[in-house]
Design brief:
The protein is an all-alpha fold and 95 residues long. It has helices spanning 2-12, 31-53, 56-75, 79-92.
Length: 95
């Protein structure tokens, strides 16, 4: 139940209508945003697998991947840039 509600929110937050209204019913999504969504889905699977196997490292890796995917999707940037921004943020905020 938790994953399905989260997935629904995940898709609703990423789809945007065309600003000019010409593409009625269509959505604007570039390749980087799509890959960000894809990374978030993979991260959710990794988190669930970590929960099932009781592996805290897999759960942490899934959480980190999901955050990187969300950064990539929201900002429409490449995977490498999203990972770099996340690492920079984490290094500045270690405490």
């Amino acid at each position: 139940m938790y994953a399905s509600a989260q997935t629904l929110d995940f898709w609703e937050s990423t789809l945007q209508a065309s600003p000019d209204g010409a593409g009625r019913g269509r959505t604007d999504m570039n390749r980087d945003r799509f890959h960000g969504l894809q990374k978030q889905l993979g991260a959710m699977v990794k988190e669930c697998w970590g929960t099932l196997t009781d592996d805290p490292l897999a759960m942490a890796a899934g959480t980190r991947d999901r955050l990187a995917g969300r950064i990539q999707e929201r900002r429409g940037i490449s995977k490498q840039e999203a990972d770099r921004q996340l690492e920079e943020f984490l290094s500045r905020n270690r405490n």
